[in-house]
Design a protein that fits this description.
2 copies of one chain form a homodimer. In chain A, 28% of the residues lie in helices and 18% in strands. Chain A has a 5-stranded mixed β-sheet with strand order 6-5-7-8-9, sandwiched between helices. A 4-stranded parallel β-sheet of chain A has the order 2-1-3-4, covered by helices on one side. The first copy, chain A, is built from 11 helices and 13 strands. Chain A is flat, with a radius of gyration of 22 Å. In chain A, strand 7, helix 6 and strand 8 form a beta-alpha-beta unit. Chain A folds into 3 domains: 111 residues, Diphthamide synthesis DPH1/DPH2 domain 1 (Rossmann fold, 3-Layer(aba) Sandwich); 106 residues, 3-Layer(aba) Sandwich (Rossmann fold); 102 residues, Rossmann fold, CATH 3.40.50.11860. With 345 residues, the first copy, chain A, is of the alpha/beta class. Chains A and B meet through helix 2, strand 2, strand 10 and strand 11 of A and helix 2, strand 2, strand 10 and strand 11 of B. Strand 2 of chain A pairs parallel with strand 11 of chain B.
């Protein structure tokens, strides 16, 4: 007899699906196959974020074995960095489109979102984080990949005597307590301390920037470290870019054409008020693509992560719309804020 | 009085248009402005190939000065390598879409093609090339940017006593005698010698590969050199890639989503016959994008220039569809051919 508890969540050895490849994660093949049958689909598109692309061929392989011969499985080769970043070309040309690794940003009949939750245990590092939490009120947030353990996180904190404040953000977010790299609305809660359970530096940094009055404690369950979000280094980098851009005569205003990353009104406003601003449309915003244009500075109305994470890779200053206002003297320097996105698309 | 002959073709100092920026080339602003007025356009998209992107802002500037205030001028930030490579996102979202630097691949009411002809003189280097042309029959081909001097080229050769053979290729080509990096149908002529007037190595190489029975003489009017197309080095490189790919167990089959670079039937055929082949869809085919997938080899059904020019930059062998057939043993090694594209899209 198979003891279910032997297997971690997502382990498919006990699902009865006959697969060609071993599986550590639950790609929810059954749900995909059902959708294909229901819609009598002939073309199935698969999109993986960068870190999961390597798994694409094996997932495609298993699907092909389980699906009728006349179904074509196509893998998106476009870069993908979030649910905001759907391969709309492939989506429009397939009957079923599966987006792996992110939770839904916008519901659609056509799209199947397969979130691929992490199996990593969260309570051990939360235990360590307790020392950083003063008082008995705490906000709790996490990322899509640990969302499957959100109740466990809350229970843990409550068992430790905390009143746990959680909130669902706006339409851009699927789950209570979920944060994105560009949306921290779920942290708008009534507590001075926020515990962020998850990896990466960008999410808690944005969190701390958006909520300068709160202490943001980071419990990283993958690397097993507890840190406190520190906005100083980040702010220095951003101020440096803003200062450099103050001398700019010509501005390239980037409108990102990715379905969930476009802010047309903001781009339009800048253009209307600055005759030395020029509108550039593009999907991937990369240093190479901008090099040829030769503007003195850029303002990116698309994904703020590109601006702040990749900023130093661009040969000219690249600012968020808020930073742009500071650079042209419309806003004082101390009003520098983290750029966030709200709503879906 | 202005003496017209002082000015080179395309010089706009004598057009009466009041421009903010000096112009060496004729961007045909008048034609664009007329189209905008005719269609009462509110959004105008501009697309430049990589080498001309730097001119984009000044062209946009002049257009904005000449157009009503409520017209938004948008510049495509997508990479662009040919008329096959239209920014369809921007095209669909603008009322007038101007594609600079290439001759039309497909006529469309929406698109204005502004070819930007070169002003370089062609007869001096043709004079030098005469020594390489035996007999009195010669084929003549050139690229889009020198097309404005095609009659002059023909006249020159006829004056030298040659019978000049020219031909319009297929639907992919606009002009008599024009070649593309992926189409040499205009060289299917009845002469043992073909004179190619133009720059770059890729065009004459493809020409020589497509017509191994002909001597292809290259007259480069920009660098002022005459050479003979030599396919040996190119062939060695290609054979090396094919040999490496012979050991591949898994294949990534790339279907390019660019409007003029897709060959769906070819991709589909490979998939149907090879169960270890997986379909990947993408617009830009770059080493970075493929790195994450981890296939043993790739076959690119998109632009052959990527495969052959950029091939060595990919960490796994990248083949054309014809080379793929050799690698899997369907065709003998000596049937290696240059990959070409026919028709429009």
């Amino acid at each position: 007899m198979t003891n279910e508890s032997e297997y971690s969540e997502g382990d498919l050895r006990n699902t009865g699906l006959s697969l060609k490849h071993d599986r550590e994660w639950d790609y929810e093949l059954e749900r995909i196959i059902e959708a294909v049958e229901e819609r009598d689909a002939k073309k199935v598109g698969l999109q993986f974020p960068e870190g999961l692309k390597r798994r694409g061929p094996a997932v495609a392989d298993d699907l092909r074995q389980l699906l009728p011969d006349d179904v074509t499985v196509m893998i998106s080769g476009q870069p993908c960095y979030g649910a905001c970043d759907l391969d709309t070309f492939l989506m429009r040309r397939t009957d079923v489109f599966v987006h792996f690794g992110h939770s839904p940003m916008k519901e659609s009949d056509k799209i199947i979102y397969v979130p691929l939750f992490s199996n990593v245990k969260v309570t051990p590092i939360m235990e360590e984080a307790l020392a950083e939490l003063d008082g008995d009120e705490v906000g709790l947030v996490t990322t899509a990949q640990h969302m499957n353990r959100f109740d466990e996180m809350r229970d843990f904190l409550e068992d430790e005597g905390f009143t746990v404040h959680t909130r669902r953000g706006d339409d851009r977010l699927t789950h209570e307590g979920q944060v994105l790299g560009c949306n921290y609305a779920s942290a708008d809660i009534d507590a001075d301390h926020v515990l962020y359970v998850g990896g990466g530096k960008f999410h808690p940094l944005g969190l701390a920037m958006e909520h300068p009055d709160k202490k943001v404690v980071i419990a990283d369950p993958v690397n097993m470290v507890v840190t406190i979000a520190d906005t100083d280094k980040f702010l220095k980098q951003r101020y440096a870019s803003v200062h450099k851009a103050m001398d700019a005569e010509t501005w390239g205003v980037i409108f990102c054409t990715k379905i969930g990353q476009g802010r047309w009104e903001i781009a339009q406003e800048i253009l209307e008020e600055n005759e030395n601003a020029y509108l550039i449309t593009m999907d991937e915003v990369t240093p190479d693509r901008l090099l040829n244009f030769g503007f003195d500075a850029y303002v990116n109305t698309g994904c703020p992560r590109i601006t702040t994470d990749d900023g130093p890779r661009f040969n000219k200053p690249m600012l968020t719309p808020g930073e742009y206002e500071i650079a042209i003297g419309e806003k004082p320097l101390d009003e520098l804020e983290f750029d966030t996105f709200h709503g879906t698309w």
